[in-house]
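Now for a specimen:

…
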Amino acid sequence: MATWRGEPYPEYVSAAERRLRAERHRKALLRQGLAPRPIAIEGRDLARTFWGEAWCAHIESLADLATRLPRGRSYLRNGAVLHLEISRGAVRARVSGTELYQIEIGIVPLAPARWSAVRRACAGRIASAVELLSGKLSSAVMTVLCDPGRGIFPGSEELELSCSCPDGARLCKHLAAVLYGVGARLDRAPELLFTLRGVELEELVAAAGRAGARAGRDAPAAALTDAQLAEIFGIELVGAAADRRAGSGKPARGARRQRRRARR
C-alpha cells in the first residue's frame, strides 16, 4: 500500500461505488426498522434558501472546522447522508462510508440571556412567522439573527461532535457532510433551526399585533445579499466584493452562482 509521511493513502472510491454502498446501507437501515430521512441534493447547490445558505456560511466561518469541510460536501452530493433528524439540541444521522456510521451532534441550547437580547433587538420588526422563515426581513433584523457571536447560530464551542468512524479528528468527513446536510434540511424546514437551539420562533413574532402600526414603517426587505452575509460571518464570498463596488444593495449579475461554484 502506498504511503505518505508514514501514513497510508486514503482508499480511492469512485462516486459510482459510493452510491452503490449508500444503497446497500439504505436497505440495511430498512431491515433494521428505521425509515430513512435522507438528504438528497438536486442540482449544483447544497442550499438554496436564505436560512440554508446562512447556516452553511456560518459553518464555513468556524475556523477550527474549515479545513475538514470540503470532503463533507462531496459526501453529501453523493447521497451519503442516508438519514438526518433534527430535534431540540441534537442532530442524529446515519452516513454511508466504508461502513454505515452513526452521527450525533449535540448543540447547546441558546442561553436565555442571549435569546432575550435577540428578542429585544428584533421587537416590533417581525410581522409574521412567514416573513421570518422566508428570510425576507429588514437587513437590520437579519443581521441580529445571523450575528456569529450574538445571534442564533451555534459557535464551535457549542457543538459536541461524535461519529462512530475510526477517524480521530474532531470533525471527520461524515460529520462535515451532516453539518452541510443540516443546511439542506433548513431549506425545506427553516423552523427546525429554532427547534435545534431550543427556542420558540413564535416569541419573535408575539408582538406582531402591537407592532402592526410600525410594520408599515419598517417594511420587510429582501434577504441579505452576498456582501452582507460575507461581512456578518467574516468570510470572503465570491461576488461579495463586486456587491460592495456596485453599491446597489443587490448581488452583481452571476455573483450568487459564482459563490455557489466556489463552495463546490
In short: Confidence is low (pLDDT under 50) at residues 1-9, 207-222, 237-263. Residues 225-264 form one domain. The chain is about 45% helix and 10% strand. The chain has two domains: 14-224, 225-264.
